[in-house]
Amino acid sequence: MEYKPVLQTLKRIGSWIVFPLLSVGDIVGRKTGRNMPRLTLAALGIYLYIYVLGSTGVFNGYVMHIINLSLIYVALAASLNLINGITGQFSLGHMGFAAVGAYVSGTFTTLLFKLNPSVPGAYLVFVGAIVAGGVAAALMGVLIGFPSLRLKGDYLAIVTLGFGEIIRTILNNISYVGGPRGLLGIPKFSNFTIIFAAAFLTILVIRNLVHSSHGRAFLAIRENELAAELAGIDTTRYKVLSFAIGAGFAGVAGGLFAHLLQMAHPTQYGFMGSVMVLIMVYAGGVGSLTGSIIAAFSLTFLSEGLRGVLDGLGELTNLPLGDLRMVIYALLLILIMLFRTEGLMGNKESKLLMLPEDKR
């Protein structure tokens, strides 16, 4: 099968949808003298593009599932980038916050209310459950923040790693939420529209936060914490705030993840899950939201693409080549970090993610 004509067709369709929306926004902006929300218009165009291709069958169910996973990883990577890249801390337990969001929201929808997606009004309760999971994760971020954020560097990383493992172990021993079997039978509320909206809101909020006075405080702490303290910035408060916001969005992503896979299991939110998100942050570029988006999509599709290729070759050769997937994946990441040490984007941002006054 020739993929080049297919890719050219997809690119042409995308240009028909995204670029006209941006052009209309520019025209309206010039007529009214106001800056139009180009990020929102671009996101709307991308949403319509993927939605049309998915609804017409060009993107089959498997491709749409990978896109949904990629969008969830966008939210996870962007929220971790707020902590590690923008504030300059080092967290290794990010999936612990996602686990809190997954189990809290799953408890509401599965055990307490026993929701059915076909029942009118069920999605409103689902959204409330997702928000509750995000709030619970944010509170956990505050709880871990106050005692541990006086630590720095490797010591902070060890504490956050321990927190993630504690959360996983606790969930593994609570029989009410399934214990080692996991929380099963979660209704499938997560769909492309809801996940896309959550990922977009995550990027939008963090983008606006970075360009606010709070964001400048985060960046000052990252560059030189002692100088920030001497300048009158309450570094402990802002580090806790960064952890709380990042943890909250991770909780929302964890809830969407559980309602996409229809289960929540402690092993899904262990150390390797946190490392996966951390790799996306550093491969995309520390401090770059654009890099987090690109890396989340690239690495998710790369992982699944390797799975398909190696499984196919394994069937042809009768060799267990599928076991080499993570080896090849790791080697590719090593090559990226060797030849692109600052990540794919470095600390650069797409113009769409920059506020008008920051564009040069």
What does this structure look like?
There is one protein chain. The protein is mainly α and 360 residues long. It folds into 2 domains: 1-59, no CATH class; 67-358, Orthogonal Bundle (ABC transporter involved in vitamin B12 uptake, BtuC). Helices cover 72% and strands 1% of the residues. It is built from 13 helices and 2 strands, in the order H-H-H-H-H-H-E-H-H-H-H-E-H-H-H. The protein has helices at 3-32, 38-55, 61-86, 94-112, 122-148, 153-172, 192-210, 213-223, 225-230, 235-261, 271-284, 289-317, 325-339, and strands at 183-184, 263-264. A two-stranded antiparallel ribbon has the order 1-2. The protein starts with a helix and ends in a 21-residue tail after the last helix. The mean pLDDT is 87.
Please write the CATH class name of the largest domain.
Mainly Alpha
Oligomer state equals: single chain
From the N-terminal CA to the C-terminal CA, the straight-line distance is 43 Å
Mean pLDDT: 87
What's the helical proportion of residues? over 70%
Work out the radius of gyration. 21 Å
